[in-house]
């Protein structure tokens, strides 16, 4: 009635709305009610996942990482914490990845014949032609997409796992089944279970969560927070290097990069030409040998970095450094032998002797 | 903008009132600035609000203008209750409250233009003319282009007055308008008040100086420590206690009998007499006494009514502050 | 009536020497940045937008505004908010407006409008000078984004316009809260000090990861996300979060200012 009271009430309502809005914004987006979906047999779902062709889509991926990894200069998006990136694919091998790093951005475009990696922080484009003998030129790019990553995990481990469907979930506003892969009791692995949210309609994995022994929270989660399925703008899969950017090739980059970063040597060795594989399933161990000159050329400050994240170990196999995360362990012997796997350290000690 | 007020015609009072307060009280924390103030401001009157510094004049005026919410009591301004009816009544009210407020970096004219832009009754086209007229009226036309920062106290006061007079007003409220003015300025203010009175506007002017009020007002209200101690028409109040002469003479007996013969009432008082002036005048009394051979050392007019009351109030107040009761032009009110 | 009041308010703000000095200072920022990048050697590089400034004059306005949003623009907004109510109260002009009469709600609206109009003007002015200085010193060959794509000049101008609106909104939100403070005091400096202290403290708090539960409540948390305007295609979630956050501050500030103004004795 009274104008003054109406004004005061309206103003108070405004303040209240603002405050409520603030707390709503501060709250993590709720998972929402799990959708009700017709039951599906685990085996059928696995089969559908492996044969699914997601086609074209674009979306935002969030990586929630609690592995305890050190920040790696080249892929800071994988350091501890939440990181997000955007991915677009045309379903036929062309793709684009946008990985923001603070206020900078790394863009990776695969236009079908060439992979472009653009880094705004150094105004540099790395261009690699896709060669006939190496169709998957950029494993990095592929692994960041949860759909592809999950498919690979399922393919590699289904024989060694107990598979079940544990209810449903809503991921990126889509209904999904929760497919759970539990390593069989005989597997000597750090992983307790891997949960994969599979889109009910497209049978495409939307989220992967890795749970390890001893913790209830996933050690790592990769998933879409937003996805739109359907044809994407073709311009996204083209890349023209900016006029004043420096264009290099990965070979040139590695030549100058290897001396700088010791972890690159390990990474390179394990991922490189022909890593040695020991065992099967979840407790597979990869082994390699780093050229000795790479080991000795590590600069002092980089050596400090290595020392900070590793611990000295020794045994009948020799001595070296052990790097441990919740899901993986890496052992680097002083003579250049390297073994790594999602296994407890004892398994590595037992395996390292076999590295040639 | 809705009809929150009753039509003025429905007002029951016999004589039209421009403003009225009932049981007004304002507390600032534990200090009571104003208490039980019942004011009545008849339409067309010039009401002088008299009171020493700190007696609650400004606070009362602020409540009348809707600037301050009373703790208790009712206010009616130009027929609408305040503060809810402020938007209806205030366009017709011009006010100069507690010193003029203007922006130092703008010229006098620009300041007035800014005030004028917010006057609801002033059509946009007339702003320029209204501003020039107001400047002319307060005698600031020459200095209008100068920055307000450089104005003397008197010029600032005049500009404040000009802002109050931008639009023809039903009621003009002036809080200590002669503050800081030289004698000529004070006379001009009086002239403007007289003009407003002639045009039929109601004027409320507060002051701590009786002389000022006496010279311009038809009505008076005296405030003391936040309450109204006297109010009414000026002439009535001045005569409330009758008029008398205090005569100091050594021949009291002679004087008394002579006056009794002349049918003038008188009685001994101290070292002289008190002579009532009803039906006679001071020169006549002196003449009678001198003719009778009574020696007159001194004859002073007795302070009466309002004068007596105000003198008591102000002198008490100023004595408290250890100041002499000298009536200066500046009055020291701030 | 209202348009005339709004016009008078903006004219009054523009006439204030402090405003002019402030605008002059703001305009210097893009010029200094362009000149600095032009004289610096090296092939660019660095964090964020700074890395792509070289040879990319169209990014100067965005970089300038992005940089200024942390301190300079909130400062200017707080000055305007401080002069709007506290300054008017100090000069005794608030009384004059209220007995004119201007209703207190209307007065707040006029002040908010003045703040918005001047913020938009200042930000636009910086952007325009940024475009000119950037083009002059660094060249204009379309606008290169953080994603490595190159937009046409028209698209670039559109991005700049969008960014101008976003930054103005953040500025107005800060100003609205400053107005609420402004309604409680007669000392403009108190308002400026309170606002700037809060902005700085917020930014410091934002650095402590142990306080990350608090971060979503701080308006300054939303500032860095606006850089997404320079990505291609634009991801809108951070931008909308920042804008909503500022919107909440705007609501709270305006509401508190209204409550204070309506109950205030002047
Ligand atoms: N805003 C305020 N806060 C506290 N006390 C006040 C305020 N305004 C006035 N007062 C007190 O109220 C009393 C009356 O003041 P005022 O109305 O200004 O007197 P006058 O105008 O007659 O000199 C004084 O004692 C003064 O100290
Ligand atoms: Mg006073």
From TrEMBL, chain A:
Task: Give the signal sequence positions.
Answer: 1-31
Keywords noted in UniProt:
Signal
Q: Where is the composition biased (Basic and acidic residues)?
A: 124-143, 251-268
**InterPro entries recorded:** LolA/LolB/LppX (IPR029046), Sporulation_related (IPR052944)
Q: Does the keyword Metal-binding apply?
A: no
Transmembrane segment boundaries: none
Residues covered by region (Disordered): 122-146, 245-268
Under SUPFAM superfamilies, the record lists: Prokaryotic lipoproteins and lipoprotein localization factors
Q: Write down what this protein is called.
A: Outer membrane lipoprotein-sorting protein
Instruction: Write down the species.
Output: Lentzea xinjiangensis
TrEMBL record, chain B:
Question: What keywords sit in the KW lines?
Answer: ATP-binding, Nucleotide-binding, Transport
Has the keyword ATP-binding been applied to this entry?
Answer: yes
Record's keyword annotation contains Glycosyltransferase: no
UniProt family annotation: Belongs to the ABC transporter superfamily.
State a single Pfam family of this protein.
Answer: ABC_tran
**Gene3D superfamilies according to UniProt:** P-loop containing nucleotide triphosphate hydrolases (3.40.50.300)
MF annotations from Gene Ontology: ATP binding; ATP hydrolysis activity
Name of protein: ABC-2 type transport system ATP-binding protein
UniProtKB/TrEMBL annotation, chain C:
Q: Does the keyword Membrane apply?
A: yes
Q: Which UniProt keywords apply?
A: Membrane, Transmembrane, Transmembrane helix
The protein's GO terms of the molecular function aspect are:
ABC-type transporter activity
Which GO CC terms are listed, alphabetically? plasma membrane
Q: Which residues cross the membrane?
A: 20-38, 58-82, 112-137, 157-182, 189-208, 244-263
Q: What is this protein called?
A: ABC-2 type transport system permease protein
**The organism's lineage?**
Bacteria, Bacillati, Actinomycetota, Actinomycetes, Pseudonocardiales
């Amino acid at each position: 009635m009274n104008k003054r009271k109406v004004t005061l009430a309206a103003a108070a309502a405004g303040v209240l709305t603002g405050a409520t809005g603030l707390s709503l914004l501060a709250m993590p987006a709720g998972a929402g009610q799990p959708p009700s979906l017709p039951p599906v047999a685990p085996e059928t779902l696995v089969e559908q996942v492996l044969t699914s062709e997601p086609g074209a889509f674009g979306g935002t991926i969030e990586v929630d990482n609690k592995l305890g990894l050190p920040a790696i200069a080249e892929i800071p998006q994988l350091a501890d914490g939440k990181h997000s990136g955007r991915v677009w694919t045309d379903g036929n091998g062309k793709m684009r990845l946008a990985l923001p790093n603070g206020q900078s951005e790394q863009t990776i475009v695969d236009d079908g014949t060439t992979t472009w990696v653009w880094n705004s922080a150094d105004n540099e484009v790395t261009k690699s032609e896709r060669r006939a003998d190496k169709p998957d030129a950029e494993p990095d790019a592929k692994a960041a997409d949860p759909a592809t990553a999950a498919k690979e995990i399922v393919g590699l481990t289904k024989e060694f796992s107990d598979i079940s469907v544990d209810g449903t979930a809503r991921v990126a506003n889509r209904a999904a089944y929760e497919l759970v892969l539990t390593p069989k009791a005989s597997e000597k692995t750090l992983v307790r279970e891997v949960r994969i949210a599979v889109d009910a309609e497209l049978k495409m994995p939307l989220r992967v969560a890795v749970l390890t022994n001893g913790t209830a929270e996933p050690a790592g989660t990769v998933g879409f927070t937003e996805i739109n399925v359907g044809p994407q703008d073709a311009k996204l899969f083209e890349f023209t290097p900016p006029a004043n950017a420096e264009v290099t090739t990965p070979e040139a980059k590695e030549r100058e990069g290897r001396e700088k970063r010791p972890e690159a040597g390990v990474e390179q060795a394990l991922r490189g030409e022909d890593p040695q594989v020991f065992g099967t399933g979840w407790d597979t161990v990869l082994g390699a040998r780093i050229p000795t000159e790479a080991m000795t050329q590590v600069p002092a400050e980089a050596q400090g970095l290595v020392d900070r994240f590793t611990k000295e170990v020794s045994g009948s196999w020799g001595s070296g450094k052990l790097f441990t995360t919740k899901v993986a362990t890496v052992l680097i012997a002083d003579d250049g032998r390297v073994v790594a796997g999602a296994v407890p350290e004892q398994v590595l000690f037992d395996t390292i002797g076999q590295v040639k | 903008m809705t009809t929150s007020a009753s039509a003025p015609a429905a007002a029951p009072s016999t004589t039209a009132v421009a403003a009225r307060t009932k049981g007004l009280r304002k507390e600032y924390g534990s200090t009571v600035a104003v208490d039980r103030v019942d004011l009545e401001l008849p339409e067309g009157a010039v009401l002088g609000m008299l009171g020493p510094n700190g007696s609650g004049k400004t606070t009362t005026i602020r409540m009348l203008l809707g600037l301050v919410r009373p703790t208790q009591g009712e206010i009616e301004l130009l027929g609408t209750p305040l503060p809810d009816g402020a938007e209806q009544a205030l366009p017709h009210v011009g006010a100069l409250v507690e010193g003029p407020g203007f922006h130092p970096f703008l010229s006098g004219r620009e300041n007035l233009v800014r005030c004028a832009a917010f006057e609801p009754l002033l059509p946009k086209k007339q702003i320029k003319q209204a501003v020039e007229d107001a400047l002319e009226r307060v005698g600031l036309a020459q200095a209008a282009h100068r920055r307000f920062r450089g104005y003397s106290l008197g010029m600032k006061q005049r500009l404040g007055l000009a802002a109050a007079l931008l639009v023809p007003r039903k009621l003009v409220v002036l809080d200590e308008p002669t503050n800081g003015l030289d004698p000529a300025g004070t006379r001009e203010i009086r002239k403007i008040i007289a003009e407003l009175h002639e045009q039929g506007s109601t004027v409320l002017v507060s002051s701590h100086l009786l002389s000022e009020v006496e010279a311009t007002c038809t009505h008076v209200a005296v405030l003391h420590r936040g309450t109204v101690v006297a109010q009414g028409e000026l002439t009535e109040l001045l005569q409330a206690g009758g008029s008398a002469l205090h005569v100091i003479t050594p021949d009291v007996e002679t004087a008394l009998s002579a006056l009794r013969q002349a049918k003038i009432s008188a009685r001994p008082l101290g070292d002289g007499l008190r002579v009532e002036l009803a039906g006679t005048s001071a020169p006549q009394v002196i003449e009678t006494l001198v003719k009778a051979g009574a020696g007159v050392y001194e004859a002073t007019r007795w302070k009466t009514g309002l004068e007596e009351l105000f003198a008591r109030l102000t002198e008490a107040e100023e004595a408290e502050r250890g100041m002499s009761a000298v009536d200066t032009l500046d009055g020291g009110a701030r | 009536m209202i348009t005339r009041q709004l016009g008078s308010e903006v004219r009054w703000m523009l006439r204030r020497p402090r405003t002019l000095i402030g605008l002059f200072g703001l305009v210097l920022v893009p010029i200094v940045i362009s000149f600095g990048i032009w004289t610096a050697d090296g092939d660019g590089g660095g964090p964020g937008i700074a890395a792509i400034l070289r040879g990319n004059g169209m990014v100067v306005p965005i970089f300038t505004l992005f940089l200024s949003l942390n301190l300079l623009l909130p400062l200017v907004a707080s000055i305007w908010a401080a002069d709007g109510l506290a300054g008017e109260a100090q000069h005794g002009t608030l009384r004059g407006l209220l007995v004119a009469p201007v209703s207190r709600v209307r007065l707040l609206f006029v002040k908010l409008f003045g703040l918005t109009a001047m913020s938009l003007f200042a930000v636009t002015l910086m952007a325009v000078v940024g475009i000119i200085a950037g083009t002059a010193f660094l060249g204009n060959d379309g606008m290169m984004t953080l994603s490595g794509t190159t937009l046409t000049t028209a698209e670039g101008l559109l991005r700049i316009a969008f960014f101008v609106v976003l930054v103005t909104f953040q500025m107005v939100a800060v100003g609205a809260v400053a107005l609420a403070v402004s309604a409680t005091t007669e000392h403009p400096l108190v308002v400026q000090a309170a606002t700037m202290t809060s902005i700085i403290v917020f930014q410091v708090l934002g650095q402590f990861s142990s306080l990350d539960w608090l971060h979503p409540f701080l308006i300054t948390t939303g500032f860095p996300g606006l850089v997404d305007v320079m990505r291609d295609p634009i991801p809108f979630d951070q931008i909308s979060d920042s804008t909503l956050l500022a919107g909440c501050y705007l609501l709270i500030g305006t509401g508190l200012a209204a409550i204070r103004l309506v109950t205030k004795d002047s």
